[in-house]
Specification:
This protein has about 400 residues and is α+β, with helices and mostly antiparallel strands. The N and C termini lie far apart (about 70 Å). A hairpin with a 2-residue loop joins strand 8 and strand 9. A 5-stranded mixed beta sheet has the order 1-12-2-8-9. It contains 11 helices and 17 strands.
């Protein structure tokens, strides 16, 4: 495709669309009126809104928020009234694509039920009418993480591959490309939006000159573009990430054999030591550094870990690839110090969960631990944390009703 040129044409003259309208016939009339027609290899970018209207996706909804609730399967982030959610289609977008603009009062417009199917049916109808091979991209407007402004992207496509995978190819310097996969349909959707405009009432654009992208078969649609939550490093907002990390924190006593990164454990300790403590004021001074009542002993070497686990004869410790001993400094206020250590350990366990690690906090004889590790008498061990990558996927804890645990005065 290097050096290829293409042109993007707005298709003017489309009327307002209503339920049951034949979109292919309306596009045919607009193309004929504009003198564009269709040629082999043309690609049409079609705004999802007109397909939704034709498919009867204009629904009564006095409460837009309720309509969003019905269309979403997962809350990703919230700030004030704005919600980023995952839709039933798998798209992560604002308000589940529920649109209350340019619709009668008391109604909202939902995304097509199956935008890929809509694209296939429209492409087939256009091919029949014009006798040419064309591709269709169904578009909608998305915001982007880290960048201001919105752009059109593909939410459905037919007879064009969503991704062009360049992995294994070489660049101009002979370097093999490792992760490059171009989201071709998103790039074309953005190009189509440049000529359609947001407020010009032009819902269709024709891209001409990229016939090599148009395929003989409908293809997989946009599914290859949808990144799974497991592979998405940024699928959660800040508050949702904390909540999800807490819910995902599960006890496990079976670990994979792979080694645990000491850096990951240290990041978890960094989270642990943000816990409240008797010595910490709202604005801690540098002189208070190190006076908090917790310490963490990291058993990283295999020799030390195995000797320690064998001496305690606790099976889960013998199976774990990494051990941590949380300790309370006994000079601190006893009652608050114990509670503070518990808070620090909870921070530690949640941070481990965010690192993809599982853990088991087990009790063991405090004096025996202190003797085995040759700790200062002021250090009071509070059990041992066995941790590692879980040997199997752990089920997420279901949210619990806080009501039974609350008393209000």
């Amino acid at each position: 495709m290097a050096g290829a040129g293409y042109a993007v044409h707005a298709v003017a003259g489309m009327p307002e669309v209503g339920p049951g309208d034949d979109i292919a016939a309306l596009i045919d009339a607009a193309l004929t009126g504009s003198g564009l027609g269709l040629r082999d290899g043309d690609i049409l970018c079609v705004t999802s809104k007109i397909l939704s209207k034709a498919e009867g996706r204009l629904v009564r909804a006095d409460d837009r928020e309720a309509a969003i609730d019905a269309e979403m399967v997962r809350l990703v982030a919230r700030r004030g009234p704005t919600r980023i959610v995952q839709t039933r289609h798998g798209f992560v977008m604002a308000a589940a694509g529920v649109d209350a603009s340019n619709t009668p009062a008391g109604t909202v417009l939902l995304l097509p039920v199956d935008p890929d199917r809509s694209a296939r049916e429209l492409a087939s109808a256009l091919r029949t009418r014009f006798g040419v091979v064309v591709g269709v991209i169904v578009t909608d407007t998305f915001g982007r993480p880290w960048r201001e402004g919105q752009t059109d992207v593909a939410i459905g496509c037919a007879y064009i591959d969503a991704l062009v995978d360049y992995r294994g190819a070489t660049d101009a310097f002979g370097n093999e490309l490792q992760v490059t996969a171009a989201a071709i349909v998103d790039e074309l959707a953005g190009a189509g939006e440049v000529v359609k405009g947001k407020a010009d009432g032009v819902p269709v654009a024709v891209i001409r000159g990229l016939a090599e992208l148009v395929s003989a078969e409908p293809g997989q649609g946009v599914r290859p573009l949808i990144r799974s939550a497991e592979n998405d490093m940024f699928s959660l907002g800040t508050s949702e990430a904390m909540r999800e990390a807490v819910l995902r924190r599960r006890e496990t006593d079976t670990f994979a054999s792979e080694a645990v990164s000491g850096d990951a454990v240290r990041r978890a300790v960094a989270a642990a030591v943000t816990a409240p403590s008797p010595s910490r004021s709202p604005s801690p001074s540098p002189s208070a550094e190190g006076s908090e009542p917790w310490r963490f002993v990291l058993l990283e070497s295999e020799t030390a870990r195995k000797a320690f686990a064998n001496a305690l004869a606790v099976p889960v410790l013998e199976r774990a690839p990494y051990l941590v001993v949380p300790c309370r400094v006994s000079e601190a206020d006893t009652e608050f110090a114990i509670a503070s250590l518990g808070a620090a350990v909870e921070n530690f366990l949640v941070a481990l969960s965010a690192e993809g690690l599982g853990a088991a906090w087990v009790s063991a004889d405090s004096a025996a631990i202190r003797n085995l590790l040759e700790l200062s008498p002021e250090w009071q061990p509070l059990g041992v944390i066995a941790l590692g990558k879980p040997a199997e996927t752990l089920p997420q804890q279901p949210p619990r009703d806080p009501g039974p645990f609350i008393t209000v005065r």
